[in-house]
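To: structure subgroup
Subject: Chain for Friday's discussion

All,

I'm putting the inputs and outputs inline so they're searchable in the archive.
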Amino acid sequence: MNRWASPPLGTSARDFLKAGRSELPVILIATPRAHFKTQLRSRWREVESDHQFMDFDQVPITDSDGVHIVGVFIRGKGLVDLQEDMFMSSDAPLVSFLESADERTFRFLLKDRNISGIVTLSDIQKLPVYSVLFSLLVAVEMLLMDRIRKACQDNEDGWLEHLRPGQRKSVEKYWNNALEKNLAIDRLSCASFGQEIEAALGLGLFKQHDEHYRGLKGLAALRDQVCHAIEFAPTPEQALMIPAQVRAAQSIAAWLLGQLGGSST
């Protein structure tokens, strides 16, 4: 078909990824200060057995007046004094918390000079996070597709040779359907993320970069969950996998931008 609309990467992918870091603040997924369940410092030992705190892994501990937060009860550790890395600005990028949540599973948020909220590992699958992950994962997939097109510029469908017969049949099915609906751009646009990754592997695009191949395989599974609104972090163990995947997505995007040279930048 003759292209009328601008291509998806007809804008700067690099600028888009930078914007993704700045547009959605971490406060969007936080529990506001007014909704905190706290305990007095003099009674912090009661937290472990108090049923009102059973659902919380972190409980803010206040002074004797119940006003100022002076520590935090961390389940499994007990009372812990406040430390610098427990704090984050309330308008800090949401992605900054996502990429570091396996190092510090909660942050107190600061606005002006006051604690305005708390964000924890359990907040990772709130709606704004879906938006951040979707944007990041789709950007990575589009960059990968452009990298494959660049590698196959002398043979547009050369990447198909690296798929199994059943995969090629699937691509052809979606291609014919796209032709009927006047949505056909190229056959690569009819491939799944997983098929694109396997084609890139067959083309040798991951030579000396096996870590990016492994990272993309993990991102493909996460992409399917995010795109279909499936809960991707219902347990602490699964939530703890997300920060590494966010870091991998950003690393892969930077690598692909470098591979593409002046395009998509």
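Points worth raising on Friday:
The CA atoms of residues 111 and 220 lie 37 Å apart.
The chain has a mean pLDDT of 92.

D.
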